[in-house]
## 1
Amino acid sequence: MTLELALQASVSGLLLGGIYALIALALALVFGVMRVLNFAHGDLLLIAMYGTVLLDKMLGLHPYAAIVVLAPLMGALGWAMFVVFIRPLLASSVLMQAQLTIGISFMIQSAALMIFGADLMNVRTTFENSTWSVGGIVIGVPLLAAFAVSVCTCAFVGWFLARTETGCRIRATAQDPVMAQLCGVAVPRVQKLVFAASIAVLAIAAGSLMTFFHVTPHTGVQFSILSLLIVVLGGLGDLKGTFVGALLIGLAESLAGAAFDSALAPAVIYILFGLALLFRPRGLFGRGSIA
Amino acid sequence: MTLPGRHARRVETALALALVWVAAGAALLTRNAYWISVATTLLMWVHLCAAWNAVGGMVGQISFGNAAFFGIGAYTSTWLGAQFGLSPWLGMLAGGTLAAGAGWCVGYLPFRWRLSHLVFALLTMTLAFVLQFSVSGIKSLGGTAGLFINAPTSLGSMRFDEPAGYLIMIALFASLTVLVVGLLFQGRRGYFWRAARDNEDAAAAAGIDLFRIKQEALAFSAFASAAAGTFYAQQIGYIDPHSVLGLDIAIQILLFAVVGGAGTQLGPVVGPLLLVPLGEALRLNLGGSAGATMHQFFYGAALVAVILLWPGGIVGGLRKAFSARRPAALAPTPDPPPPRTVAPQPVAMAREALIEIAGIGKRFGGLQALHEISFTVYRGEILGVIGPNGAGKTTLFSLLAGFQSPSAGQISYAGQRIDGLAPHEVCRRGIARTFQITQAFPTLTVFDTVLTAALVRHDVAAAQGIADAVLARTGLWPRRSALCADITLAEQRRLEIARALATEPTVLLLDESMAGLTARETDEALHLLRGLREEGLTIVLIEHVMRAVMSVCDRLVVLDAGKLIAAGAPATVASDPQVIRAYLGARAERK
């Protein structure tokens, strides 16, 4: 691997990692506030991605414009999913919830296959082929824009949690739901709100992704696994750890792909994940709840 | 003498076996190649689910990665066959052994360190992914293109001209797995499995070697899954990383087993038996691209519905419905067995040091929970450990019983060091503990709980005698067939003591065994403790009920903020000014 290739891979890896960060952040937030590990997270993203494709095909809507339409719809979907499936199992073990969400993932995936078929779909935009070249490194404009949108959204979420009253309630619920309840926080409402909002945020990730990425019914599982890796790596419930973990995973994935140039590249990421799970069970910064 | 519930477990094994052969027989009778192939697939899932159930259901360690073992079996036998012309039967043994080894490796750290179930589940998933991508990148294993098998048809090559051959073979495989799991489940190991699944702390306190039983179950599960992998490869004649190592396989195993009823013997048979034919029917009736995936949608929906409506799966739900209608099945026994001594050694006249605690400390990150604690427990005494909340009393017990290792100092028991030993090892040497927050096995009866602890050292007949005696002794005899989830707090506290007694200890560590009891219940408990001391048992107890402490203890040690501040006879300690300030004084002031 030449230095140039390594640099190129690092830059695109980090940019991709920024988008992963937004997706994983939504998962981490849900885990933090209700201790539910949602294995259907990527499949909900998948719904938003197909939604973006549909809006493009039917109304010619730009993926970024589609976010405005999709975000409230995804929020409503998250709301419904919470009420019907998640809430009854809030008191169960993480693995019970995992099995339930695996079932949901199965349903979404096969529904997508029935409706859209197995072919990959994408959205054409006017700037899809434009690139910037900085010192020999080529950066795709769509990727850069998606990175910017995702990181800004992450920053907004961070600001919201740190500075607003609702954010304070959410953090209180994440830290100690019983104490939060005793202090007058309506914990069930906070949980419902966070679940719906986290799913709504996936619309932003989907819109950004669809400017340069494609979608197949299998994409959902890939993103479910990917965001699971990131959240565990970052430390369950640790949002900063999740953000850094996402950048690292993006970087590692891209570098491994460049270095090995073979089908076994992804194995590297999983080996890293396994080691992190065993030796950093509280995540990169050791601040997450123990896995 | 038969054990309560053993008959039902035998019937369930027989029923599971019968279902396997009914399915196989029905398909054979149709003489239709299509239905025979559906039944073959179905029974392969039964086999895989039964193998998964050994570890995922019975021991309660959910694996997301049994596809890894399946794939190891498929690839090992296929590769050995292609390279060296090795018979798939030998290849199956090699693959099974390799898979069992892989299982042992993946389970080693999480089980040794007692990491959470989630870590184990995610690690198994990681194993499957690492193998899938690695094999995809290895040319000699065919990479993503996969491997073909071109052996001629014969029993020796596990390949048949007639599809019925495959069906009969997989029915035999599935029966064997169901039978082995069933026999293990009926015996002593079944009690240990259920105990480990229900409550790991209580199981360790009962002397069960959790690491070993989990590793055994995982290795067995891996071996059996790998055997199915070899079978699949020979049947289809082609394997690739996606079809034998993919996540879909692991998920489907889990899904069928959970829908049927994880942890039951019938569940892994019933799950595929209901879902696979229904899925096939959907596929046939819908046709086209919708039919090709509709069954997957249906499988997912079945899993969601079962978890929301019948958390124990179909078999668990049916069992609950049946037992609700049936009155308690235990035959009425006229009288409890005569009480008998649990520790028949005579009381030592001379002061013999039994446990020596020398300068132990325990640090949790920045918190020094215990600091330089030294004292001795003498044989045959009742020693009280008192101190305000947060003084480190329970931490001290955790160190004594092996649930945590001290950061400094050492603990010796009868002259041998015991710090750093695992809880079950400490328990087997003769120190048994109870828990302040009672730790029960929710799906076991009171009798089974005590029996499980007794089975660690004895065979079934002897253990049954001990369990009877302990139940009579602790006054739980009338409640022996109640589920642990259904008994009162006072009974739970007595069950804690009963579980500890059933391990035939020399020393009992009782952590607030009288907390929350009424005055009468406390008196009963005190009576029991005095009786046990007269039989020669040494007792160390943590207690807040001062009446109990003062009346029953020979000596007291007092902890405050992790330090030992006083030790001696109850009356002396009670008048110690430091103790009054730290402990009794705070109380007096509140009044």
Note: The CA atoms of residues 430 and 506 of chain B lie 5 Å apart.
## 2
Amino acid sequence: MKVLIIGHPDAVLGFSLAGVSGRLATTVDEVNQALDDAQAAKDVGIVLVTQDVAELIPDRMEHLKLRSTIPLVVEIPSSGSLPEDQESLGDIVFRAIGIKL
Amino acid sequence: MPQTSIAPTRTNLIRQKKDLRFAQEGYEILNRKREALINELVSVAKEADALQKEVWALLGTGYGAMEKARLVMGSDHVEWAALAVNKTVDVHIQLRGIMGVPIPSIEARGEPPKLLYSPGDTAAVLDEATATFREVLLKVPQLAMLTATVWRLANELRKTMRRVNALQHIFIPQYEETIAFIISSLEEREREETFRLKLLKTRMAKSAEASVS
């Protein structure tokens, strides 16, 4: 199965240099449409969504991250934003068990 | 506050005791589940966090290099170069369960080619960008797997903890109070009964005496 990237043009172009096909998306409708297609496609294993568009559809992203197994949905930073203002996995664990690793 | 709506009868007492035992058993099982989830989560969390930070840092470099490549060559050229790349990572996803949580395990096969576009035509920064994104892509399957695992385990853990807390702090004390209330009511009724019988006995004795004399 393939990897697919949805979101910011920079990320899509960058990943296409590594052979990953991408869908440009900047609006809510575009993201939803792209995600629908990705879920319908049989050969998509991992969907990367850039943070700037993931923020447009927080509920759906939450649901996909928790429930969807094929494809797996992963949020990645987009070029405009620094990794610092994103919730890292360490923060998620901290929220869940109250222990800082 | 005991549930005063429950009639203090023996049947209800038995029923409440059964419910309490059930709640305690559930509490114990959930507590063990909670511990197992914490163990599992802690064991993957460190690795996942490190990998995520690594990928984010790489992406930062990659975006920077892309920006430069676009400035040097123009967006169109970068896109053309990207068209030449046709082979990529192939992933295979399987599921395994940890305490009822489906956790993916991913196997990645193949890798993107090292160099496909003509280097004579492109700027050196493009090579840098390509190399970085290539490296990111190689880490993506692992990252996807760990991220999903952490998210799901953390979510399940939150749910389990909420249930454990509800049982421990609300349901079990409530059952205990209700049982204590029923027991005390039953005892009170018994004492009343004894007193009534004694009173009756003395009255009967008195009336018997009166009839004799």
Note: The longest helix of chain B spans residues 124-212.
## 3
Amino acid sequence: MLALQEAFDGHDTFYFCYDADTTRRLPNVYLVPNMARNPIEFLKNLWRVHRIFKKERPDMVVSTGAEIAIPVVLIANLFGIPTVYIECGAQVTHPSVTGRLMYWLADSFYVQWPELLKAYGPRAIFRGSLIDEDAPIPNDRSAEKRLKVSLVQPSQTEAFSSDQPPMGSAYIASVLEQHGCDVRVVDANVEKLSPNEVVRLLAQQRPDVVCFSVTTPLFPSTMNIARQLKTFTTPPILIAGGPHATVLPDDFLNDGLFDYVVRGEGEKTIGELIERIIEGGTSEGIQGLSWQQDGATIHNPDRPLSMDFAEFAYPDWSLFPLKRYGSLARRHDLSLPITTSRGCPFGCSFCYKGVYGRKLRMRTPEQVVDEWEFLVNRYALREVAVLDDVFSFDIPRALAICRLLIERGLDRVPWSTTNGIRVDNATPELFQAMKRAGCYRVYFGIESGVQGIIDSLHKNITLEQVRFAVTEAKKAGLEVGGYFMLGNVGETVADMDKSIDFALALNLDYAQFSIATPYPGTEMFEQISKNGKLWINSWEDLATYGTGVFSAGDVTPEVVGRYFRKAIRKFYFRPRYALRQLRELFTWTGFRHRTLASWLLIKLAVLGGRRKVSLAKPNRRADV
Amino acid sequence: MIYVTVGTMFLDFPRLILKMDEIARDTGERVIIQTGLGTTFPQHCEHFDFKPRDEIMDIQREARLVVCHAGIGSVLDVLEVLRPMLVVPRLKKFNEHMTDHQLDVARAVEKRGWGRMILDMNDLPDACVAPPPVPASYKPAKHRLIVAVRDTIDRVAARR
């Protein structure tokens, strides 16, 4: 405990521990006799702790064991006081009795050896240790030179926010750690923090640098937070990255709010930038960086995409609030994503390619399965999600990955391809191999049931290919989900009906309908800018779910919204569909997911997640 | 000089103490044994039950080899001075400890290249002649854990 003293700097502390020579010397200490497994002493300690807590009114409890933690944490739970439990260093592979209890009772549960993670489960975290070493940090530095960096994922204030682990930020977090930074992550989406609450948290963290990962709908809330951060007595350096920052860097830099924008694939750029910030010097020559000098914005040349995945450290998920991630679309509460390739060579009009580009860069099967194995062991995962845009572009590579998964016994951990694989990159043999390797569900990007619309999206697939892929995947024993978009450019109500009917006819297990949304930097955005009207008041409105956001023909945004609700009703509220889901209700997770999913679907279908869109001022590109 | 430590455990560890005594007798090398709360004492070695930590660390710095039970505190002390280390886990079946968790610690020590695990006492004489290599450096990831705890504290403070 004393080794952790530094963590309590600036806060009042008191100790509660067994009476011993070493503990007698502690300041503000409550000493009790060793209780071991004596039930009378245990009850006495409950009473003692209760009295002490009433007097001291602690805001938080940290314990390193052993059984003395039990009465303390029990009383803390009763008082609603957050608790942190750090498992004793002597437990390497076998849980302690106290640890088993604390796993469920404590709010945060840390182990000091990675070997112990598996024995406890996904709630246990290995993030540093008083004993064990970590992977060496290539650019480590002394305490006074370490930068404190907070990585912020701003929240969408109203729309259905993401509950997915943010992959891009996790890679960046690792890069920052490799450069010897103290990294903290604030994921406002899953932590349910408003912009003001994020600011309050950052005021406590007092970071030197704050990095934002910004997609277009998050722009207003990012700027809101940034503005407040700059009023701090020592304002942090602000860096923005992500899709929106890549397309419109000037929006971040022009009023002098942000110091830097990292454009495109950010790993190398942010690494070089951090070195410059620490060592001093100008930002000239850092490719992919936009910055401010004497009130002028300077855009350094683009950085070429990195061709080698091996140069990036694995995403460090231990920094993220893992307990809070979950998806109704998966079997288990926690699944972490893996990226086996970056970039996509196809030219779909709705897809933004500014960050990872159109050049497909694939990791070798060995590299992929090495990380897969690490993920499963390090985070005690029960499920993995493959996040690629085109996992099976190179079918022999996909087959080799499946083969390696089986060889290393990883086929016991279920996985799915959540971002969809292309129906034209699929063979019956691949589906069978995926099934054998533990895959339980594939998603396909289908987009529409009308060939003309698919063609206009430059999706470059045929309805025939869709039917073939869905049939073969089902034959291989995989569940099949389909992604559809409604309200595409030039789409009529008859077309939307056809898409809904197509989804039904394919006999899919899941269908995700979304409303076509033109994000800046996509071809679709250019089309709307030229020949349509964007019905938004602020970038935030792009994340709307209940209604369309543009018109480029006869169909109004309201009609698109109606068809969106109709699609959900027709697909999910079928007796046949409900029956098929019945068997899922027999597991607790299945039951919980189905109940939550039903509620979400009802909300979407009936209320439509409607957001008031002011139709009086169409096509206004507001800044906030 | 070889330093041997059995920690602060209340159970005896005669297996290690008697074998080291034998080695001291056979080789004539100076062996110092910390015997703790145990009741087995060597005849051919210097021995003591407890000493202040800084004195212990001085002895360890002088030693060409440390033979220790697989208690986490003892292991950390050896790592702090970076000396060749043989770890001998106290086992439940010999009534040396209440659980076999020291076996896990010893395995972890060996896996990380911090020292060598000795299960069979007959391996001990040879292991003392050819001690295992010392790791180039030892730097526990303590700072990371401090940042993690600090992070939780900040979250609580921000909510107030």
Note: The longest strand of chain B covers residues 65-69.
## 4
Amino acid sequence: MATKMMLLVGTRKGVFLATSDEARRDWQIRGPFCDGWPIYHATYDDATGTIYAAAASEWHGTSIWRSSDLGESWTASSEGLAYEDGGRNLTKVSCITVDGDRLLAGAEPAGIFESHDGGETWSLVSRLEDLPGRAEWDEPGNQPPGHLGLPAVFAHDGEYKAIIQGVGLFGSTDGMKTWSPRNKGLRREWPGDHEEIGFCVHKVAVSPDPKRLYQQNHCGMHRSDDGGQTWTEITEGLPCDFGFAAAAHPHDRDSFYVVPLDGGHGRCMPDGKAAVWRTSDAGSSWQRLDRGLPQSDAFIGVLREGMAIDALDEPGLYFGSSTGQLFASADAGETWHEAAGYLPGISSVEVAVLA
Amino acid sequence: MARLRLPPTLPSFYADLPRRLDVDAPTVAAAFAELDARWPGLYDRLCEHGPALRTHIHVYVDGTRGGLDTPIGDASRVDVVAAISGG
């Protein structure tokens, strides 16, 4: 059967689905789905063929939408997505991860929920209460801008890893009962009370070698060769050290992609010239990839879940901008084309192969 | 039976939820609980931890701004409004 590709695009006004054949050149866009709710992350479960989308409405709160027929119909649930009485208001779900036969969701304020019934009901797994200084960094007044709480949780290299926005990367080797920092070697440009707490980890990308990880941090690009225990900065050669999105090549442990952004208030691609940057030697050098991307007046940004890569022999690379442009490359970033130009602001892009 | 009006953002969330319906409940909170029994999860769409009305959900009982504890009479009109926010 011919391979069919699907991009799951989470936007400020619902989920959009873009489908193409294996050439990944012409994209058919459907949507908006989820009734136009703001979406923070949408993903696809290969095993069940279900799409999940984490939504947070200013009016109606948090809900996780799901579709088991590729977007034809949708159901939403927030049952169990709450902290205990006396606890904090759960303001949004920032990410959804398929973890075997269960789902994991990262929430703001920082917490992890699970579902064993395909997203119908949820229950709290962890609030990461044992981490150093939690009482201080979990205070509502100390929350960093962006308000994502816990934007990533995933199984990796014999443990679970989770990012807490503005706090750091953490690992759990006992099924998310206890946690410890994975931030040694990271740079920060502000004082901290704890040597391994207070790091702004934007995105962690896992290479095909589980010991090799890459990280886009608020303060530079970093690489780990020991499963995240220690990190080495690899920013040199990039136009700036700031960015959100990142993707690792699915077949080459030394190749990694980032989207450098101005680190001030603008947080756009430098000089209005769009580019993805790639290293093919684990960060020793970087190449600018911009063929087909706009090279003037392109003041666009890409958020932390805004880039994805597929696992075909020649991987496709995709990114969506916070101003609604969706770009695709069928040759691992060498050349690009616009798949959609006028979507709502894009918060997440994921790619699925539909056999 | 009080007459209750819901914001346009809700009926599309629940396929069979009308914009206007009758409820038999002594307070706004009880009315929302009655709705939740018929459309599970609806209470969470209107209220948050506390419980309290969500920040941008406003309720008017007979034209006067109310809260979850506001009494409802047999002939009351209850307007649930999604306040202007976002863009």
Note: Chain B touches chain A through 20 residues (CB under 8 Å).
